[in-house]
Amino acid sequence: MKAPSAPTRKAKTAHTTRTLDQQLEHKVAALRKYRGAIHFYRTHRSLLSATAKRDDAKSNVAYAERRVRQLSKTVAALRMKVQARDARRLASLPPKKAICAVFADNCRAAIAVAWCESHLRTTAHNGQYLGLFQMGSYERQLFGHGPTAHEQAVAAHRYFVRSGRDWSPWSCRWAAA
């Protein structure tokens, strides 16, 4: 009888390839497991003092504490990568999608106001008024601004919320009705 052949290298790597979100989920689950082990030993102190299992218990706690330190660093790094990826994705959104991502329930009204104000152009300007929502210099200073549709939508949303979820600060407020 012939021995089964070893799996190819491609098959091995395909099985272990995970997305960034899956990696983060996996590491967070492992972190919870080791934190749970530490909590268990802290709430069952008799295991650390009983002579029969003391050495095993102490080595388990020490190992779990090392893993928590390692995994905490890994989770933090993965979260930063996820945040950077999400920021890149949001920065590349076209104006309508960026506005809807920020304004959610008020998406249609926000698009109508932005269309009236700038024809959905992030580079639109009229004197001191700039961007999708034509915010003035004082408002940009208060609520922010940026070159991307997402950054401009976030700034406009802050202004919208500060004004009582009302379109009154915009001259095209009638478009939201």
Can you walk me through this structure?
With 177 residues, this protein is mainly α. It has two domains: 19-91; 95-176, Lysozyme, CATH 1.10.530.10. Helices cover 66% and strands 2% of the residues. The protein has eight helices and two strands. The chain has helices spanning 9-16, 20-43, 46-49, 54-91, 95-103, 107-118, 137-143, 149-162, and strands spanning 125-126, 129-130. Strands 1-2 form a two-stranded antiparallel ribbon. α5 crosses α6 and α5 packs parallel to α8. It is elongated. The termini are far apart. 17% of the residues are buried. The mean pLDDT is 89.
Labels describing this entry:
2 domains, elongated, mainly alpha, Lysozyme, 2 strands, 8 helices, 177 residues
At the first level of CATH, the class of the largest domain is Mainly Alpha
Number of helices, where a helix is a run of at least 4 consecutive DSSP H or I residues = 8
Whole-number average pLDDT? 89
Cα Rg: 27 Å
Low-confidence stretches: none
Give the strand tally. 2
* Class derived from helix and strand content: mainly alpha
Reported by name, the CATH topology of the largest domain is: Lysozyme
N- to C-terminal distance: 79 Å
**Sheet of most strands:** 2 strands, antiparallel
Compute the number of structural domains. Answer: 2
Largest sheet, spatial ordering of strands: 1-2
